[in-house]
Amino acid sequence: MSLLARGPHLDAIQRNGLTVVEGDDRYAIDINATDQPGTLGAQDLLFICLKGPALIQAASSLAPLVNAGTHIVSAMNGVPWWFLNSFGGRLEGQRLESVDPAGVVSSALPPSQVSGCVVHLSSSIAEPGVIKKGNGNQLIVGPAAPGVTDRAARAIELLRVAQFDVTASSQIRSDIWAKLWGNMTMNPISAITRSTADVILDDPLTAQLVVSIMEEARRIGEEIGIELNMTAQARNAQTRKLGAFKTSMLQDVEAGRQLEIEAILGAPHELAAKAGIPAPFLSVLYGLAGQLNANLAGLANAPTR
């Protein structure tokens, strides 16, 4: 088993192993860590756990890890690069420029070899090389292409051995869209306003904005073949029960890190355009979040739309 890392994290892992903190328990895993993918060669099973912008930057360097027999499992937020591959419908096989610009990701990580993984757990980096587990332990895993069904089942078995609560899915895109349905509002609105989720939902104006964007996302999903089985109000009631929590984007803003805008907002915005679905509220939020991201990066101008 090998791990790609860089900078202080790589140094710490090479010295001390990868350390995991769970409650009062703390243990270290001795693992082959490197920042040179080319030294590892093609892998049988490759987990992609990067945020969208980092994946785009790193994609070409990951190509040595992949051959025709590699099973790729993407555990990422938002809409992934492979979303429209083997999907069916009128958008079948189209590339999403927002998450796969010029095909740089799909060239290195072929969509036909991918399974998707939806993550319902929290963790944080306590210090270099040290991961602190938070709430939740659920993963949803399913094949994204017909040829990887058996390999997805084997990946699920391995993850269960690793003591994750894993649900097998035959409709992984629907599971991705269902999680995105909440994240695409709470995350960017909290980043822009610096408010926790409870404040956003308790304010009638921002709560209505959340619902308006969610209804647009529902229509986008229906147009491309994804049905959601609850109302926006019911989904937000689930979020409200979590209390005054800081979203991952709000934490990124406070740390001065770049935000994962394209997978969360850019890809749904692009899908709306491809499907011919008006999404004015989504467009406004995407534009505001893009400006915030540009400012965090220290750029003079927001990216060209």
Automatic annotation (TrEMBL):
Query: Which EC number(s) are documented for this chain?
Result: 1.1.1.169
Question: Where in the numbering of this chain does the Ketopantoate reductase N-terminal domain appear?
Answer: 3-79
The Ketopantoate reductase C-terminal domain covers 172-291
**GO BP term, example:** pantothenate biosynthetic process
Query: Which pathway does the record list?
Result: Cofactor biosynthesis; (R)-pantothenate biosynthesis; (R)-pantoate from 3-methyl-2-oxobutanoate: step 2/2
Any one cellular component term from GO for this entry?
cytoplasm
Q: Which reaction does it catalyse?
A: (R)-pantoate + NADP(+) = 2-dehydropantoate + NADPH + H(+)
**Which InterPro entries would you find in this protein's record?**
6-PGluconate_DH-like_C_sf (IPR008927), 6PGD_dom2 (IPR013328), KPA_reductase (IPR013752), KPR-Related (IPR051402), KPR_N (IPR013332)
Q: Which GO terms describe its molecular function?
A: 2-dehydropantoate 2-reductase activity
- Keywords of this protein's UniProt record, alphabetized? Pantothenate biosynthesis
* Protein name stated in the entry: 2-dehydropantoate 2-reductase
Protein species of origin: Caballeronia sordidicola
Upper taxonomic lineage: Bacteria, Pseudomonadati, Pseudomonadota, Betaproteobacteria, Burkholderiales
